[in-house]
Amino acid sequence: MSGPHPAAPADGALDHVVINVLRRMDEAADLFAALGFRLTPRGHHSLGSINHLMMTPGPYLELVGVPESGAQRQDVLDSPFGLNGLVVASRDADATQARLAALGLAAGPPVAFSRPVIVDGHEEAARFRTVRVPAHLFPAGRLYHCEHLTPDLVWRPEWLDHPNGFSGIDALTIESPAPEVDAPLYAAASGAPAEAAGGVWTLRLGTTRIAIVPGPAARFATLALRFRGLDALEARATALPAATWVRHGPDKAELTLPAFGLQLPCRAAP
């Protein structure tokens, strides 16, 4: 087992956020590429799913789906379409599983899987171990922990520079009919304390804010993204019929992708 890579998020920080596109991966990948995101080459997981990543030096954004033929990952098929995966970083999946089990929140032992990665013309295996929590306790979307056994095959410098300036994930907003019930569960599962103010519960996974707010149904509602500037993204978004772009000033905007049910507040920051 390889040791943790310096670029991998610290234990308990946000590892990545997942957008489930099911069998529409080509459409989703084309859209995000047209918006100026640099996508990693398509990955094929040993569990029966496919993906593209949009990397930052910290947490990243993942498009996940299932292939047209062959094994198809059941938990992806069973998951809601669109924004639906909150993944917490783990440096030791066994220790994470033990902590969750002590809280009554472990859905099972760590699951190991891999996907091929081509680096400098050679095929390597990016390897992971994940620990899941009971799905019925988190109806808004999947929550699980991920240990990267080969982080050097994920956080590659050639994948960090996006034409649109994408540089980080600021916040995930989760709607809940009962935030006061759900927030302690998210806090226990992630290991981060939750604080309440004005009916909104907030916890931090590393530098990313998780807000649990009142709503009619449990869902991952919005994902706030950070960019080095907004002009490059605006030029691409306003040229695409599949995107809606509303500017709220020099440093803030709202990007909506209706085909995938995505609301993506955007801000410019160094």
Write structural notes for this entry:
With 270 residues, the protein is of the alpha+beta class. The protein folds into two domains: 146 residues, 2,3-Dihydroxybiphenyl 1,2-Dioxygenase, domain 1; 103 residues, 2,3-Dihydroxybiphenyl 1,2-Dioxygenase, domain 1. 16% of the residues lie in helices and 41% in strands. It is built from five helices and 16 strands. The strands form two sheets. An eight-stranded mixed beta sheet has the order 2-3-4-1-5-8-7-6. A hairpin with a 5-residue loop joins strand 2 and strand 3. The N terminus is likely disordered.
Number of helices: 5
Query: Could you state the order of secondary-structure elements as H and E?
Result: EHEEEHEHEEEEHEEEEHEEE
CATH architecture of the largest domain: Roll
Total tally of structural domains? 2
> Considering the protein shown, what is the CATH homologous superfamily of the largest domain?
2,3-Dihydroxybiphenyl 1,2-Dioxygenase, domain 1
Work out the radius of gyration.
18 Å
Distance between the termini: 35 Å
Number of strands: 16
Spans of at least 5 consecutive residues with low confidence? 1-6
Look at the structure and give the CATH class of the largest domain.
Alpha Beta
Strand content: 35-45%
CATH topology of the largest domain: 2,3-Dihydroxybiphenyl 1,2-Dioxygenase, domain 1
Q: Could you tell me the mean pLDDT?
A: 94
Strand order of the largest sheet: 2-3-4-1-5-8-7-6
Main sheet specs = 8 strands, mixed
Question: What's the helical proportion of residues?
Answer: 10-25%
Overall 3D form:
globular
